[in-house]
Amino acid sequence: MRDTLSNAYIIAKREFAAYFATPLAAVFLTIFVAATGAFAFYIGGFFDRGQANLHAFFAYHPWLYLLLVPAVAMRLWAEERKSGTIELLMTLPISPTEAILGKFAAAWAFIGLALVLTFPMWITVNYLGDPDNGVILASYIGSFLMAGAFLAIGAFISAMTKNQVIAFILAATVCFLFVTSGMELVQNSVRAWAPRFVADGVATMSFLTHYEQITRGVLTLDSIIFFLSLIAFALFANAIAVSQKKSA
Q1: pTM, 2 dp
Q2: Which of 197, 198, 205 is nearest to 181 (CA)?
Q3: Which N-terminal stretch is annotated as signal sequence (predicted)?
Q4: 78 pLDDT exceeds 70?
Q5: Domain hosting residue 36, numbered range
């Protein structure tokens, strides 16, 4: 176990550094910070609300992640498969699990860095009023966990194809279903043909339900377990997909 974590850490460091080998990292971080600010100020009416909180800022994270996180995830394995470097990677003295954990950790840390760079929003709202910083901290944790779930799903889909565009579209589509599964429109559609317990089961898979609960300051164990379990399951599926490609 110690060797696994050590090797995964080495891969994560290499992958994280690789993000900054091209200008794409700076472009992504700039777009992320600008988009979160624009949504909060112009669409969320940050100043018009007259409230010292970041509800308008966090409310749009699930929708931004639908575009930005699959864009990060699509290259994790699809690029390796297209360039043929996955064969080289698999010949190294590391296991697929170590490679998967390392790549995922690097990508998750990169998205975490993007979140950290939005800290001026937190400073601004404290300058303007007296916000509940506990709720803001919980919202950041919830956003980071949700981003991890988006990323794990995207990484799994990336391992299934050589085409990054297909990986992006499929990941965004699957994540969209997870985001909207608790909405009334979706629930009414499911209840029209399925028993109630099926509809309730679909609703419990909603990213929005768990995330909005956290952004209200209710950081429950259920929501944490939900996101972590989903990440673990998607990474497990990712490991199976990579192992099959390795043995093929």
Answers
A1: 0.89
A2: 205
A3: none
A4: yes
A5: 1-245
